[in-house]
Amino acid sequence: MNPHVALKAYASSLSLYERSEILDYPDVYFVGQNAQKVASSPELSGCNFGFDDERGDYNVINNDHLCYRYEIVESLGKGSFGQVLKCLDHKTGEYVAVKIIRNKKRFHCQALVEVKILECLNRWDPDDSHNIVHMDDHFYFRNHLCIVFELLSMNLYEFIKRHDFQGFSLGLIKRFCVQLLNSLSLLQKHNIVHCDLKPENVLLKHPTKSSIKVIDFGSSCFENEKVYTYIQSRFYRSPEVILGMTYNMAIDMWSLGCILAELYTGYPLFPGEGEQEQLACIMEIQGIPERYLIEKSTRKKLFFDVNGNPRPVVNSKGKRRRPGTKTLQSVLKCQDEVFLDFISRCLHWDPEKRMKPDEGLMHEWITDVKLSVSD
């Protein structure tokens, strides 16, 4: 409908605020006529006329509209950035996921970077073959930037949990890995760092199939436009980020190695309680990093003494982790040498020596082809 027709038909269902707001929309698909509308008022300027809570999050009301087009069905999740909702697009008749960014300047600025990256990824992946979430649209609604995505299924953490943290077969893990390498290969080609690769940010397309997509580019950046020095979720955080070294796309390959190990065992490989113990968890399996890497670190005094020895860390259970006392093989309880080799190449201390996505796609574990020494 055009807004004047919609206003005439649904005036009694609209709030006073909406009766003027609706006229700004050339097309009206849905007005949320059965929703308990927010008691918005021009006097409530402090909380965005009553549409926001004190945190700057949009006050979500199920069955209400976004932009006179999307019907809010349910919440899919919430984070520091804002919230994600399952919505019905009344223009297309399809369900979508809508990310509503918090009405605060720093989250809005970062979301603009996310939109820019997603627009590029849509352009670079026109046939949707790189296992990266597709952005359908973005718009402003009541001072909130909203980003519309295809609707996907559960994330890999939920998938692991649904299988009682028992881990998965190497065959299934390999299918996931090929798709993740496919995503990272495109990102690498265009110098994008995801910065938050973890099981929660890898979604199944369908609950009973193994197709996946990488989501959440809210922390991502172009390699030459890095904004943050401290990124990545702790269990999947690369040592160069912990140590305050310069970082690049190699941090995502570190996260991939951690994810693969977790898919195999059902549990995080490096479950540090804080950043000190996180590095201790890494050193317990990977040993102490070489001196030249420690010297590049801007935060080395937090983790090492003047002689380069790790500072002792005791966790809440009174446990102290000692460098080099465990092997990847023993922690994973895995005998598959080729799989172990793949993960250890993702977990190289030196980011320059860490495996790259395209090298990963050529690795023996992925190809099942053993390379000879001359190769």
Automatic annotation (TrEMBL):
It comes from the Eukaryota. Gene3D superfamilies: DYRK, Phosphorylase Kinase, domain 1, Transferase(Phosphotransferase) domain 1. Residues 70-366 form the Protein kinase domain. The keyword Repressor does not apply. GO terms for cellular component: cytoplasm; cytoskeleton. GO terms for molecular function: ATP binding; protein serine/threonine kinase activity; protein serine/threonine/tyrosine kinase activity. ATP binds at residue 99. Belongs to the protein kinase superfamily. CMGC Ser/Thr protein kinase family. MNB/DYRK subfamily. This is dual-specificity kinase.
